[in-house]
Description:
The structure is a homodimer. Chain A has helices at residues 17-31, 43-50, 54-58, 75-82, 87-96, 109-120, 155-173, 194-206, 219-224, 234-260, 263-283, 309-324, 327-349, and strands spanning 5-10, 35-41, 60-64, 102-105, 130-137, 140-145, 179-183, 212-217, 229-231, 291-294, 300-302.
Amino acid sequence: MNKTITISIDVMGGDNGVDVILAGAALALKRMPHTKFLLFGKQELIEPVLATHTALADVSEVVHCDIAVAMDAKPSMALRQGRYKSSMWRAIEAVKDGRAGVCVSAGNTGALMAMSRFCLRSMPGVERPAIAAIWPTMRGDSIVLDMGATIGADAKQLVSFSMMGGAMARALFSIKRPTVGLLNVGVEEIKGVEYVREAGRILKEADFPFCKYIGFVEGDDIGKGTADVVVTEGFSGNIALKTAEGTARQIAIYLRESISRSLMARIGYVFARGAFNRLKDKMDPSKSNGGVFLGLNGLVIKSHGSADPEGFASAIGLGEAMTRNGLLQKLSDDMTQFQAMLSSEQESKE
Amino acid sequence: MNKTITISIDVMGGDNGVDVILAGAALALKRMPHTKFLLFGKQELIEPVLATHTALADVSEVVHCDIAVAMDAKPSMALRQGRYKSSMWRAIEAVKDGRAGVCVSAGNTGALMAMSRFCLRSMPGVERPAIAAIWPTMRGDSIVLDMGATIGADAKQLVSFSMMGGAMARALFSIKRPTVGLLNVGVEEIKGVEYVREAGRILKEADFPFCKYIGFVEGDDIGKGTADVVVTEGFSGNIALKTAEGTARQIAIYLRESISRSLMARIGYVFARGAFNRLKDKMDPSKSNGGVFLGLNGLVIKSHGSADPEGFASAIGLGEAMTRNGLLQKLSDDMTQFQAMLSSEQESKE
């Protein structure tokens, strides 16, 4: 029943070094004992740290790579210098070769996407990959995409994002027919950005068995959990995500300041500590860490560069869950079905 | 010194009726005694309510209008049916005729923008108006625009938004040379959306005396207060604003739930009540209510449709402050200077 999943890790990615990446992997292993690891990076840096995580060492294979992609490298430069030999490339390649079910990296997003596209290629029927994020909402988690894999999109791409997000929701949340909303603006004059409206028309008409289109949603609907999957193009998606993160951080700071300001408030805090910890837990960004690259012939997860071990472990957990639940197969089935629908429609028109 | 400012109000706009609008105006008058009001709307609805606000009645003139623009009217339809005669139109017209310094409406955003453009026309040099919002940040308030007056923008429009936002910051915050950042995404691959990069180049080269360009900012920089003015096109701006509002509301609900869950937490709350009230105050959206239409030959403020009297009063307060501080004159001076720079550049190139 519990087959072992192999996870390939770019140990050189991230702002916080090998220690944090391996501590994250060790934590993930503790939670998910049916995992094995392929660790790509500089042997001389990995070995001494790995020696301190004996359980992890037992299920890991270290693959030495001389080259590490810098966090600030331009994607084109990273691709030129790191292709075929960097720890990032080789971690992705392990997914391509079937040696790993998913690759996790906290490295440079642009380089990771460029290499993933180059190495894994897009799924049949997918023009552009997307980055999906898990978004904590009032009704549990939702999926929001694209978080910035590409800028701009046309109607067909938004439809394909909807299917990708839908497949991910089915793999992660065990919902048979996830609801999908298209992010739009509420100012009446311009309610209909044309390509978003067109995407809405396609989704409504197609009435996919694998996702249920519920119409337009606005920025504040994301946090309400109005839809299981919220779809938008990369520029606005990235801005929405970062703005929400910024707002949450801002409020957390206000809260801390308000409480430390007076003795009465500090006394109150002592009593309410449990409540605050629950709140902190709910607002903890590391609990929902991990951007999922969707639409490629293989699974790659981007962890926040600054993730702590908890954050990195949750990115690994996300990858493990999607691999175990067969995300890629689900998505590929959907895409095939969609292509068939499109071509039969085309024929009936001709 | 304290000259009287006349404010024209579309009393028929908003979700909550005449009562709330007039209570808001009465509250605003209390705070800003040097104001007078022109109240546009149905006399039979206004008079009885106004009679209960004697101070407001003393400084108000009621102008009867038969027609009210519905909250869900399409802008084109509103314009066709309400032009020249609706309360919304006539409130805007009062600004055009110089009888009022600013118009405030809680009505239909699309209709208000369509009528404002039609009635007031764009300032010389401005291709498109924008809607600017006040955004509470860790370093005081910032201005963010465009919140959705139009979708998409080119480099020149972003530059003109920067100048509009800069003029507003000077009028509101008494900063001589406000900092301006262009909203962009941080994913390395696509850091340079071309029209945003181009706008950055223009702003950097121009090195305006009236605003200081500081480069790209990301979604989480808005709440940090990295720039006094954050500029983006309307789609992403609207989504950023609504997402931030949604996140704040979500956290407020979490907080309430966490506290009401246990006796200890409720006891803690009693002690920390002052701190919570301060926090609530800081997070209160009605304190920063009011979208400012910039780039027209006259000032129009859009209040949230669902604003309470406090919210509507703060939209009036915003309009009053900008009128008193000569926003329009400042902006028109800047635009003239910018046009002169552009044409001298053009000449030197020829």
